[in-house]
Amino acid sequence: MSSSDPKTPPSAEQPRKGPLSFLSGAVTAGLLAWLALGLSRRMVVYFAVHPPHYSSPIAQNIAVTLKTLLVGLSFLATFSTAFVALGLTMVFLRSVFTGPSNDPA
Q1: How many structural domains compose the chain?
Q2: Average pLDDT over residues 29-52
Q3: In the chain, which residue ranges form alpha helices assigned H by DSSP?
Q4: What is the rounded distance in angstroms from the CA atom of residue 49 to the CA atom of residue 75?
């Protein structure tokens, strides 16, 4: 279908993303991964220096579980954003070296 076809709405054909979009996404994701890594490292140091001390075993278990959950989530955010940055970097490199695609799909 071409854009001159009366059945095709004007917003149906969107331009394909270029290398600059992939590069900006990779840089943004890399920056977020770097910030998340800094937060994760600070959390590990803080919890190592300030271990929870409660007289109740239930409160101690809850505190240790929360600490583990927070540290785990911060490292999950670090590695997931780092993998997104890596993937976008590879897509950027592929789009730079292969050039524009003539594939309509």
Answers
A1: 1
A2: 96
A3: 19-49, 57-98
A4: 19
